[in-house]
Specification:
Length: about 110
């Protein structure tokens, strides 16, 4: 289930709140606390036999840019603005997270 715009979260709140509570266990009155500290994660260890089966993993990153519409509603100019914001954020990474950003627009084959 996706809300196609910022306003959709409010227009469809009664419906979306039920989905969020069922899937994530969070009620509309709950307070969301963000922490990027992996030491604060409450993740039980994988059983040894399952841990051996994992050869790779993927982390999905979703954006949260309230000033821009989602999906098909975003214009080409807005996509360029979003890319500029993301590149700026990526340039702040240090250590093992530091890397080089390659824009699809200027990337060679």
């Amino acid at each position: 289930m996706y809300a196609g715009s910022h306003d959709s979260y409010y227009a469809f709140a009664p419906f979306l709140d039920k989905i969020i509570e069922a899937y994530h266990g969070h009620k509309p009155t709950d307070k969301h606390i963000s922490s990027m500290d992996y030491n604060q994660l409450n993740c039980p260890p994988f059983p040894t036999d399952e841990d051996k089966m994992i050869s790779s993993t993927r982390i999905r990153v979703a954006r949260n840019l309230a000033d821009y519409p989602l999906g098909t509603q975003v214009t080409r100019q807005q996509r360029k603005e979003i890319e500029k914001l993301v590149v700026s954020a990526l340039s702040e990474f240090t250590g093992e997270l530091k890397g080089k950003y390659y824009s699809l627009e200027t990337m060679t084959e």
